[in-house]
Specification:
single chain; binds adenosine-5'-diphosphate; four-stranded antiparallel β-sheet; alpha/beta; 10 helices; about 30% helix; globular; binds magnesium ion
Length: about 290
């Protein structure tokens, strides 16, 4: 697959910063993939997204979109992309449909709004004022907005943040459908469990630097450790023990445990992307923000 984006030695500093917020990052996004940009709050995810969608300028390094320098694109670039920001912004005193029409008029290419609004379950509520929408509805409206111009590439900044499981599923299904229809996706998140199964490749970013870029599968093979968790009762207390699956049949402690203890549960667990992130970067993710 060809690269749709190439980012080379990207450095960036906000005017008020002493140090670079991005310290020379490199990555490529392949055409047709879902590329995850993962890291804790303050790592530089939103800043990177803003730079590669041409909202922040004055960066150092080189960025190529479809083989051409990003700096040489004008309005044509915005016709080609769809964006959802971390904080959804709508006109709250207008109806959802009035919002959609307003934003759709900014583009030459126009998607089928009725289909999109039905797809996200908002068609019935299309004439309600956005002020009356719940948070989940606003986020779904935001994704419709990102798709208004039938973009070839989607940029989603923390799209699952604060979403309940039902809304998160709608969003993830939409992202997968977008990919199946040929689209490319850049998605940032500090909540890895949300996008673990969604991304074709992920980059780990911490403190303005990228540690790793790989497929979740390769990362799990390389850093993952398959383990068994056993819980047993001892002196009226539940005791938890972890065993590596390597040579389990020869592990005396494991064999003694299952022979002698009063077992309550046995589970085998795959290493999650989050476990790997912590292992590779040494940084724990803050899930509260
Ligand atoms: N407008 C701004 N002015 C100055 N510093 C900023 C601005 N926006 C973000 N930062 C700083 O840049 C760093 C990266 O922020 P950001 O890209 O928003 O991180 P993330 O999206 O990974 O949480 C943080 O230290 C943040 O405080
Ligand atoms: Mg952010």
């Amino acid at each position: 697959m060809a690269n749709i984006f190439e980012v080379k030695d990207l450095k960036f500093k906000y005017k008020t910063n002493q140090e670079n917020v991005l310290k020379g990052i490199n990555f490529q996004i392949k055409e047709g993939e879902i590329f995850g940009f993962l890291g804790p709050s303050g790592a530089g995810k939103s800043t990177t997204q803003k730079i590669i969608i041409k909202i922040l300028e004055n960066y150092q390094g080189n960025i190529f979109y479809k083989g051409k320098d990003l700096k040489d694109y004008k309005q044509d670039f915005f016709e080609d992309i769809g964006v959802s920001f971390e904080m959804p912004i709508h006109f709250s005193k207008m109806t959802a449909m009035e919002n959609i029409r307003f934003f759709q008029n900014l583009y030459k290419k126009k998607a089928d709004v009725e289909r999109l609004m039905k797809r996200v379950g908002l068609w019935e509520d299309k004439d309600k004022m956005v002020a009356e929408y719940s948070k989940g509805m606003k986020i779904r409206l935001n994704i419709v907005r990102a798709l208004l111009n039938s973009p070839t590439m989607l940029f989603l900044d923390e799209p699952t943040n604060g979403l309940d499981p039902a809304n998160a599923k709608i969003l993830k299904d939409l992202i997968r459908e977008f990919k199946v229809s040929g689209g490319t996706v850049f998605i940032t998140s500090h909540i890895m469990a949300d996008i673990d199964q969604l991304c074709d490749r992920v980059a780990f970013i911490v403190n303005g630097e990228i540690n790793v870029v790989d497929t979740p599968r390769n990362l799990k093979i390389k850093y993952g450790e398959r383990r068994i968790k056993i819980e047993y009762k001892e002196n009226n207390k539940i005791v938890e023990k972890l065993f590596s699956m390597e040579d389990l049949g020869k592990n005396k402690e494991f064999l003694n445990t299952i022979k002698e203890k009063d077992i309550e549960t046995i589970h085998s667990g795959e290493t999650t992307l989050e476990d790997i992130f912590i292992k590779v970067t040494g940084v724990t993710l803050d899930e509260k923000q």
